[in-house]
Amino acid sequence: MSDLSVLAGLVTYAGSAEHKRFPNPIAKPELRSDASDCDLVDQSLSQDPARLLKLLREIIGRGQVDPRRDGMFPRYGWGWIRGSDRHSKLVEVRVTNSTLGAYKGYFIDDTDLVGKKAWLRKYLLDGGPWSGELE
Known about the structure:
This protein has 135 residues and is of the alpha+beta class.
């Protein structure tokens, strides 16, 4: 199965405690010192599992994904979202269970793209095809 619109309907958002400081409906918070702090960036998003799932499905359905797969699911995906402060935030999603299609997501800074492939920077930044906000 390679149709991303079909895959988008199969994925789930499992979340990740290692990116959370505050209690939320998804995971007991266990922020790692070297992990991005999603609650610091936008705590309201951590409290809204339905929105997180919608964003994940939109990323995959739009094809804003890494060409590599874990099983049938894209390994990574990226997208811009409007945060509660009304500014665009860059989120990266990663498959955590390729059998179930479960993903976690976390905010990254666009400077984190420096070490990524040139095609990804081109797609996400400076008016590239993935530079528009989701939703």
